Amino acid sequence: MSHVGAPRGRTCSRTLRSVALLTSGVLALPALSACTSDDGSDSASAAAPDIASAKRDGVRQGGTLRWAIDSVPTTLNVFQADANGATSRIAGAVLPALFTLDKSGRPQRNPDYLESAKVVEREPKQVVLYKLNQQAVWSDGREIGAADFASQWRALRGKDSAYWTARNAGYERIQKIERGKNNLEVRVTFNKPYADWKSLFSPLYPKAVTGKPNSFNDKARTALETTAGPFKVKKVDRKDKKVTLIRNPRWWGEPAKLNSIVLSAVPRSKRAAALADGKLDLAEIDRRTAERIALADRDSGSGGQQLTHGPGTEITAASALRSWALAHGSDDEKAEEAQDARKQTERAIAEYAREQKALRGYEVRKSLEPAYTQLALNGESGPLADERVRRAVARALDRQELADTVLKPLGLPARPLGSHLALIGQQAYADSSKALGKQDTQEARALLADAGWIPGGARKKTGGTKAGSEAKKAEKSGQDGTEGNEGSENAEEQSSDTKPSKEPMSEKEQEAADKKADERAAAEKKKWDEHEKAEEKKAAEKSDEKKPAEKKKPAEKAPSDDEKKAEDEKSASARQEEGSAGEAPSDEGEYIVGDSKPGRPEPRQAEPRQAEPRQQQEELRQAEPRQAEPRQAAPNPESATHVLAPALATTAAFHGATLLRQAASMDDSDSDSDSGTGSRTVRVAHASHEKPGGMAGAYAPRGTAAPAPRSGPLGKNGKPLTLRFVLPSGEGSESLRTVGERISRMLDRIGIGTEITKVDDASYFKDHIASGEYDLALYSWPATAYPATDGRPIFAKPVPASDGSLLVEQNYTRVGTYHIDQLFDRAASELNEGTARDLVRQADARIWAAAGSIPLYQRPELAAAKPGLVNAGAFGFATPRYQDMGYKNAGASGPDAKKK
C-alpha cells in the first residue's frame, strides 16, 4: 500500500502502519493498543470479550485448533507493507511482545519477557530502562538482549533505504541503545521525548532477521527459523493454504495447552460450508453465517420438520405448479430446462438442510471489534472541497440509526462513536462530536444554501457567490462577477487551512495566523451584530407605527373576486420592488436558521434589505413553493415565518472561523476541567448564537433559509449537487452496502444526490480509496492505544510532492490542517499522560470540525466456535493468550480429542 500510484495523490510509506483487509473494508494495524491515562475517560465500558474463559487447570493438555484466516500471508514480517492480519496472528504466537493489551485496550507489561520497563531519566534526554526476564531465550538458545533491540532499531529508524519497511514511527526518535549493568538490562535513549515508547519492540525480531537487509527483506517473508513464543512455525504450505504452528520446546513460560494450531485460509463466503464439513474449530464469521448458526440451534427442537428458511422457501404454490407444468409439458426443450432447475433446487435444499444440521455443533461468540466504520468525504476537489458542504453531509446523518441498523440485530450495544482516536471503554475516549453538532436536517440544508446550493440551481448558471476551491478556480479564470468575488475570497480564506500548501507554517506563523483569524472573526461578528441591532430597531419602530392603525381599523366585509384579483396584483408588484427581502408566500417549507431556538428572539417581521442582483432575486423567487390558491394578506408578525435575504458574503469567513474557535474553546474547557491549568477559554460565538447540538460555527449564518424540500438534488451554476458513493460489492460487505443505502436516503432529504457505484472488493481500496477516485466511501480504521503516533498519518494535512501530486500518507480524505498536525506532534512528545490525552482530544475536536471523516459505529466481532473450545473466540481489545487456548477437560472436542 505504500507508494500507491494514483492520478491525484499517492501514499507515503514514512509512517504507514496499516494494511487493507479488502474483503471487509477494514484497514488493520499490525498491533492494537490504548491510552494509559486514568483521568477523564468516558464512563461507558468496552464490550467484554466472549472467549469462554476458563482457568488453565480446566483445560486439557493436547489437541489441535483449526483456525480460519482470510489468506496465507505473503510475508511473516509485520513491518513490511504487504503484511496482513494473518501475519500479526502468527507473530503474536511465536515472537516476543513486550506489552500486551487488557480487555479495555490498555497496554500492560508482559511478565514473560519483562521484569520491568520505565522511564528512568527525563533530562537532558528521555531514557527508558528495560529489565528482561532472565529466562527469556530465543529458540536457538541465545538470550534475548540489547543486540536484538539495537538491530531492530537500525532496521526501522528510516536511515537505511536498503531495508524495505513500511513502519518506522517512534524508532526515528531513538538516539542510541546500549547494554545496562548486565545482559538483562537494555537502556534506550531518545533524541526527543516520546510518549508512546511502549509501542516499540512489539513484536521483537531476532538480530538474525533484522541484522542484514537481505534477511529482513527476503528470508523473513517465507520463514522464521528463530522465535521466542509459546509456539513456533513448523510449516507454511502455500499450496494447501495452511500455516502450522507447534509448541516451542524452549518456551520458559506456562506451557501451551494445545499441541498445534493450524491456520487455514478459507474465504469468509465459504466458512459456513467449511464449518458444516467439520474442517474448522474457530472462525471469524459475517452476520449471515451467524444467523444460520442461530437458526440451526433454534431448529434443533423442531422434530425434523421442514425448514422455513434457506433455498426453496420462496417457492409458492403457484410457482411450483408452473414449474411442474413446464417440466411435464409438450415443449421438450423447456421441459428439460425446467426438470434441471427442479433438480438443482432439490439438491440445494438437501445440502442446506445438511449444513444446518451440522452447524448445530457450533456456537456464536460476539463482542465489538477494536475498529470503527466511518464515512469518508474526499475533500480534495468537487463540492466536498467546500467545508460547508462536508458539514452539511455530517449534519444530515442520523448516526444512531446507522449504529442500530448494524449492531442491534446482533444483540450488541449500539452507540454512535464520538471520537476518531479512541473507542468507547478506552481511557482516552471522549465524545468530541459536539464540535460539529448533532443531526439536524434543516441546519444541513441551511449550510448548503450558504454554500450556494439551492433548488433550481442545476437549471441555470448564475454569477452568485462561489465557495471553496470553485471560487479560487473561478477567480483565477476571471469568471466571477462583482458580487461573487467578495464571497469567494472569504470562503477561500476559511478553507485554506484544509488545502495543501507548499511550505508548512512555523509555530510562530501559525499563532499569528490564528490571531489574525480571531481578529477577523471578531470584526465580522461585530459588523453582523450591529447589522442585526439596526434591523431589530427598524422592526420595533415599524411595529409601533402599525399598532394604532390596527386598533382603529373597522371590520371589513369579505372582498369580491375582482377585489381579490386586484389585491393580488398589487401585492405581487410590491414584492417585485422589495426583492427577496419581503414576506414568504406562506410558512410551509421555509425555515430560518436561528428562529424559535433557545437563546434567540421570537420570529419578527423582516424588513426590506439592500437590493440583490436581479438574477439572484429571480432564482430565489423560482425556488419558492408554488401555491395552488391565490394568496391572502400577509400573516401577522407574531406567527409568520419569513425568508430573509441571504447572509452577507462576509459572514462566510465568520462561519468558518467560529467553528475553529469552537473547537479551540472545547480544547480549553477540557483542559481546564481535567488538568486544572486554568488556561483561557477562547469563545468567539455570541451566547445567542449557540444552539443544542453544537456551537455557532456548526450552523449557517443567521438569516440563511433552509430551502423548501424538493425532489431531486440541489444545484449551483447549472450543476446538480450529486456525489459519487463507492461501495464494495463482495458477499461479506452486505452491512456496508445497507449502511450506504441508508446514508444515501438521508442525504436525499437535504437535496444531495448520490450515485452509488459498487466495485469489486479487490479494487475497492487501491483503485478507489487510496487513489482518491470517490466522493463518499465507507471503510474502517482499527483502534489504537497510541493515537498520537498512529493517528497522525491518518489525519495529517496532505502536502505537495516533488512530482506535483499530493503526499497523503494515510489521509485518504485529503482533509487536514497544520494545527491538527502540531497537536499530534505535541502529544507524541508529552510525557505527562494527562496532558498528552488532552492534546489528543483537542486534535480530535478539530478533526470533527474539518468534517473529512465521520465515525459511525464500532464494528461487530463474530466468531463461530466449537462449544468445548475455551479461551478463544471474540477477543475484543484483549490480546490472545495462545498458551491458554484449548479444549475443556470434560466433554472435550476437536479433531484430536479421541486420541487422548
Summarize this structure as a short list of keywords or feature phrases:
900 residues, alpha+beta, 6-stranded mixed sheet, 4-stranded mixed sheet, 26 strands, 34% helix, disordered N terminus, disordered C terminus
What does this structure look like?
With 900 residues, the protein is an alpha+beta fold. 34% of the residues lie in helices and 15% in strands. The chain is built from 23 helices and 26 strands. The strands form nine sheets. It has a six-stranded mixed sheet with strand order 13-24-14-21-19-20, with helices on both faces. β1 (19-21) and β2 (26-28) form a beta hairpin. The longest helix has 46 residues, at 507-552. It is flat.
Separation of the first and last Cα atoms: 46 Å
3D shape: flat
Overall pLDDT: 76
- Give the total of beta strands: 26
Query: Taking Cα atoms only, what radius of gyration do you get, to the nearest Å?
Result: 32 Å
Helix content: 25-40%
Strand-pairing-aware structural class: alpha+beta
Count the helices. How many?
A: 23
Strand order of the largest sheet: 13-24-14-21-19-20
| Proportion of strand residues | 5-15%
Low-confidence stretches: 1-43, 463-504, 546-558, 570-655, 669-697, 891-900
What about the largest sheet?
Answer: 6 strands, mixed
